[in-house]
Amino acid sequence: xxxxxxxxxxxxxxxxxxxxxxxxxxxxxxxxxxxxxxxxxxxxxxxxxxxxxxxxxxxxxxxxxxxxxxxxxxxxxxxxxxxxxxxxxxxxxxxxxxxxxxxxxxxxxxxxxxxxxx
Length: 118
Fold this sequence. Notes:
By secondary structure, the chain is an all-beta fold. The chain has strands spanning 2-6, 9-12, 17-24, 31-38, 45-50, 57-59, 67-72, 77-82, 91-99, 107-108, 112-117. Strands 2, 4, 5, 6, 9, 10 and 11 form a seven-stranded mixed beta sheet that branches. Strands 1-3-8-7 form a four-stranded antiparallel beta sheet, with no helix packed on it.
C-alpha cells in the first residue's frame, strides 16, 4: 500500500481544511487508517483513526469535536476534516495505515503541511 496525503495549506484561526489520503497498490478494506501530525520541534502525535470496517473512529483529546475522519472505500481514500483550526494545530500531517490485525501503524505517506495563523 502506498499513501499520498494532500490538502494542506495556510489558513487563519477558525478556518477549516479537508485533508485527503489516497491509498494505492492494494485495497485498504483490511487496513486501519490513521492521521498523525508533527509540529515543529515536537514529536509526532496521534490525531485520529478509522478502523478497517469504516465504522469506528478514535480521536486525540486535543482535536475531539473539531476534527472528523472518514473514508470512501470506493475511492480508497480517507479524509480528515479539520474545523475551528487553532495555531497549535500547525504541523505536518501524515496519513498512516496498518493491517487490521497488527498493533502498530507501519505504512506511512509523505506529509502535508497545515499552517494556522492567529
